[in-house]
Amino acid sequence: MTETTSNQGALGGVRVLDLSRVLAGPWATQILGDLGADVIKIEKPGAGDDTRAWGPPFLPGGEGKHGDAAYYLAANRNKRSVTIDFAKAEGAELVRRLAPHCQILVENFKTGGLKKYGLDYESIRALNPSIVYCSITGFGHTGPYAKRPGYDYIIQGMGGLMSLTGEPSGEPMKSAVAVADLFTGMYAVTAILAALRHAERTGIGQHIDSALLDNQVAMLANLGAGYLTSGEHPVRLGNQHASIAPYQVLATADGHIILAVGNDGQFQDFCVAAGVTLCEDPRFARNEARVQNRTALTDALSAIMRTRTTSAWIAALEVAQVPCGPINALDQVYADPQVVSRGLVETVTRADGAEVRIAASPLRLSETPPRTRAAPPLLGQDTDAVLREFLSASETELRAWRERAIV
Fold it and tell me: Is pLDDT at 42 greater than 50 in this prediction?
């Protein structure tokens, strides 16, 4: 990279060898890239990351073909794409030669899957003792399930989230976005940065064993803690909250609203703004009583909330400082003045000249803010440049590797 230090970001000078694909790993490496790391994404020649084909929707392509899928665009900005087939001995050797130039390696192959290529932690550590090597798997590298493949949907079910999500009388429900993958990516970044700090102090790297199931169980948060404390299984409450009421979706005269009353004072303020006396009813005066009488409370609120439109309720309740909000469709999300003001969508230009709209990093750092330095790369667009930069590859070598489908 040729950026000045002031423009590099918090992780300027850090290089990531990214052997991951799909979501959890790429989500982690995208965050590292946003923070200034130089992320070298290794992809299979001719195919690339699986998510390039996970559509529709797709970007338009030439000659009647489609381009990359939107799914791929969601997790791969600020990276360089290098195509190497490391299932072949020569390709694996190229990746090993890149490893000493990197401070971090991220992979999400099945447990033990990279050993046969000489790309497992022990092999890479022998080449680069200070490397932070992060493995992301479904179930971790130990335990009876270590060899199983792990997918977000399965983990949401096994890890308890689906048992807690959905309407009381309906079937268990997964989250619309792959939260086990995304949380794992976030937890992985935290572990990577901690290990990187240790490596910078001591010169000693380490292996990070990050598992989707581990992270899903950890993120059960208060509901998991409730079970561990009481031994009682939480019940599915749909859009209501197990411990707070009213904290739910309610129909209005023209749509729906989220009413998120967090304490008794806010409920009193709601009653004043709504012109009702529910807070004087002993069934509803305190949060504990409201939770115990949530059915009666919901019945009463349903009649009240239908008397005004969503916008009218939001206007009145914001003045009263009662937490509430609309349920926006995505067109409304991206047009929302707060979303626009915070710059949460960017237009970037890819190497082929195509302009695409992507989500921006939500991180806000006063001194080293993240920047979108590069659009999600085309497959293999940086192969020659990276191999020249770090391996001093000649044109003859590049041509020979390409002829043998190594790159």
Answer: yes
Using pLDDT thresholds of 50, 70 and 90, give the confidence band for residue 147. Answer: very high
Residue with tokens 């073909």: 65
pLDDT digits (tens, 9 = 90+) for 274-293: 999 999 999 999 999 999 99
Interval 164-203: pLDDT, tens: 999 999 999 999 999 999 999 999 999 999 999 999 999 9
What number does CATH give the domain 247-331?
Answer: 3.30.1540.10
Pairing of strands 324-325, 345-349: unpaired
Q: Given a cut of 70, is residue 30 above it in pLDDT?
A: yes
The count of other CB atoms within 10 Å of the CB of residue 283 is: 13
What residue segments make up the domains of the chain, in order of their start?
Answer: 5-219+340-403, 247-331
pLDDT of residue 55 exceeding 90: yes
What pLDDT sits at residue 62? 77
Catalytic residue among 18, 85, 120, 181: 181
Alpha-carbon gap, residue 313 to 318, rounded angstroms? 8
Nearest C-alpha neighbor of 51 from the set 29, 68, 28: 68
C-alpha separations of 33 from 9, 10, 189, 376 in Å: 9, 10, 11, 11
Residue 331 annotated as catalytic: no
Domain 247-331 in the same topology as domain 5-219+340-403:
no
Give the integer Cα–Cα distance in Å for 233 and 146.
27
E strands, 315-403, where?
324-325, 345-349, 355-359
Question: In terms of DSSP bridges, do strands 132-137 and 206-211 run parallel, antiparallel, or are they unpaired?
Answer: parallel
Q: Count Cβ neighbours within 10 Å for each residue of 191-229 and write b for 16 or more, e otherwise.
A: bbbebbeebeeeeebbbbbbbbbbbbbebbeebbebeee
Which residues 6+ apart lie within 8 Å of 47 measured at CB? 53, 379
Do the Cβ atoms of 80 and 374 come closer than 8 Å?
A: yes
Q: Does domain 5-219+340-403 have CATH number 3.40.50.10540?
A: yes
